[in-house]
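Known limitations

Files may contain more than one protein. Parsers should not assume a single record per file. Below, a two-record file is shown to illustrate correct handling: read the sequence, read the token line, then continue until end of file.
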Amino acid sequence: MVMDRNIGILSTGSYLPKREVGNDEVAERVGVTPEWIERKTQILSRRYAAPHEATSDLAVRAGTQALEQAGLSADQIDYIIVSTSTGDFPQPPTSYLVQHGLGAYSAACFDVNVVCSGFVYALALARSLVAVSPDSRVLVIGADLYSRILDFGDRRTAVLFADGAGAAVVGSVPAPHGILGIDLASRGDAHHLIRVEAGGSRNPATAETVADGGHFFRMDGRAVRDFVADNVPPALVALARRVGVTLPQVNHFVPHQANGVMLGEVVERAGLGNAHTHRTLRKYGNVGSASVPVALDEAHRGGALSPGDLVLLAGFGGGMAIGASLLTWGAGA
């Protein structure tokens, strides 16, 4: 008898750099108080990569954890998808450096850049690949290293962002577990709200762009907060309705760790008060595309997730973009 199969998460992994940076250090550099940072963001500390570490190094460490938990060797992975907006180089793709670091030479590799929603977008691509080839396994990694592109004269961004990587292996899992649905939304009319203005083909790197700070990360914080408040809760409600559940039925909410105050507003507006909202930002800050998989890995390794639990993943941010996925946690994880 052939067991019914769905597509889901087989394992998780994460890596946070060793250097812990508290609010005292950031406050001194930015020109605010530690209390101001905590009140505005609910962040207490974050991690910064060592000078020798790049995004691919963090991603390799997270991917290794996910492979070990799944009991897989690197040569058993068919695809590697790396979600990052802070790649090692403009080219080659960071995923190829990750492939080399893992020794996963049987895998086809590519990057996605949807900033903080990228892990969920990559999860959607992984599901499509497994749907075509049910025996395949996809290593999905979200990794960002923001400490190198922060302007510490800009308190809107410098207090929030940090470095980290999270990973998941995606493949076939026994029904009824697995991914129930994924919804993706893109709003290019709001592309200017989160940006790095120089270093691409429109504004190539020059001495002038460097002097002007064009390579730093920029964000219109108030407008981003309004976008999230207006667009994310309705998107989560619509996804739940489409897959035949309600948000009060959700057991675990694993959101992008954008800002603690913002997360509280999303939970309230979406009606997710019954769910356990997993928060890692107090100790890790906003790690971009790594936020969702890092929080998922901590929940998984900490024993918070049980087979049959309804888990909602939600990424939102630069683009602007929203990615949300509902899944039934199960035996494959």
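...continuing to the second record:
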Amino acid sequence: MKPSEIVISNELVCHNEIVESLGAKAFGPGRFARTAFRVREGAPFENELSFVALIDNHVVGSVRITRVVIGARPGLLLGPLVVDVLYKNQGIGSLLMSACVNASRDMANELIILVGDEPYYQPFGFKKIPAGKITMPGPVDPARFLACELTKGSLEHFSGQVRAYSALNEIY
């Protein structure tokens, strides 16, 4: 697959069903019990920061960003990142990651957190969060709890528990 055949676009409402199906295939029913999923279910994902990969107008991958509050500061939670098994190892995940990290930075956000494999996410600027600095409302493997500073040094300004952002939070 040539990168020119892959179109990266903001996720639209019409993509939701196939994106949910990709997530179900990739992560199974156990995804509902994961801490990051439980945080995300408390708030909608951000369309302007969430992307799909299209080949011939068919969704073959997705990455979502959800607004969260970390302590008292606004932040972002990335996930899930998913690529259809038929299109894995073709650079689609990397294209999606670059799109969401760049869009998040362009919109003046400070920090993205995620739970994932550091070797995969490190090239996009993610590194382990120091133990205890930021906590999730449930169990998370500290070796997989990562952050990407969208502005240099921003991680030092974040601490506390992650919770879903709601319009009722007065944090801005």
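Parsers that stop after the first record will miss the second one. For reference, the second record is described as follows. The two ends are 43 Å apart (CA to CA).
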